[in-house]
Amino acid sequence: MYAFQDHYPENLSHCYGCGSQNPHGHQIKTEWEGDETVTRFRPEPFHTSVPGFAYGGLIASLIDCHSTASAAAAMYRQEGRSMDSLPAFRFVTGSLHVDFLKPTPIDAELVIRGQVKEIKGRKVVIESQVWARTVMTAKGVVVAVQMPENFGT
Ligand SMILES: CCCCCCCCCCCC(=O)SCCNC(=O)CCNC(=O)[C@H](O)C(C)(C)COP(=O)(O)OP(=O)(O)OC[C@H]1O[C@@H](n2cnc3c(N)ncnc32)[C@H](O)[C@@H]1OP(=O)(O)O
């Protein structure tokens, strides 16, 4: 699998949620399945909240980084361009809303499915759902915004 995150340059691959260069992070991998974006992640015992269930912050961070990657992929797809082509689209989180619908079991593979709801200017809105086996345990909406040149200054 060659994931969206595999196109990130090394200097932008340190994110706790999605950076391949962060040994302490989730290192999520996201790809297209038709018009949906999909991330699969297996929680570890140290991601526990209530025993037997996953910590909500983990769920939120999975939705977050799944969505920023999906936003970039959606922009490239809209322009009919490869994710390695220039100019690059880099997205950060403007807002993150999560609804926790059911407890998320710690012992199941989580599947995050995203849909592109809006692309407008520098903004992409992604809706996502987190599935554990056959149960949707959380859903989220992310407003991803193209990272400004002067980000952090
Ligand atoms: C491939 C390499 C990967 C590279 C990236 C690898 C790292 C992945 C990151 C993973 C996710 C993260 O954790 S990122 C880290 C957490 N996030 C951050 O630190 C971001 C901090 N915030 C900021 O820097 C800024 O507020 C921005 C960039 C988000 C927005 O500022 P701006 O650039 O001045 O945006 P602005 O022109 O005002 O607005 C542009 C459009 O976005 C909308 N917008 C802006 N902020 C919001 C908001 N909070 N909620 C809703 N909508 C918003 C505006 O209404 C507008 O829509 P309209 O009027 O046009 O309709």
UniProtKB/TrEMBL annotation:
It catalyses: dodecanoyl-CoA + H2O = dodecanoate + CoA + H(+); (5Z,8Z,11Z,14Z)-eicosatetraenoyl-CoA + H2O = (5Z,8Z,11Z,14Z)-eicosatetraenoate + CoA + H(+); tetradecanoyl-CoA + H2O = tetradecanoate + CoA + H(+); hexadecanoyl-CoA + H2O = hexadecanoate + CoA + H(+). Its EC number is 3.1.2.2. Residues 52-136 form the Thioesterase domain. Transmembrane segments: none annotated. GO terms for biological process: fatty acid metabolic process. It is a peripheral membrane protein. It is found in: Cell projection, Ruffle membrane; Cytoplasm; Membrane. Keywords: Apoptosis, Cell membrane, Cell projection, Cytoplasm, Fatty acid metabolism, Hydrolase, Lipid metabolism, Membrane, Transit peptide. Its main location: membrane. One of its GO terms (molecular function) is thiolester hydrolase activity. SUPFAM superfamilies: Thioesterase/thiol ester dehydrase-isomerase. GO terms for cellular component: cytoplasm; membrane. It is an enzyme of class 3 (hydrolase). Belongs to the THEM4/THEM5 thioesterase family. This is Acyl-coenzyme A thioesterase THEM4. It comes from Paenacidovorax caeni.
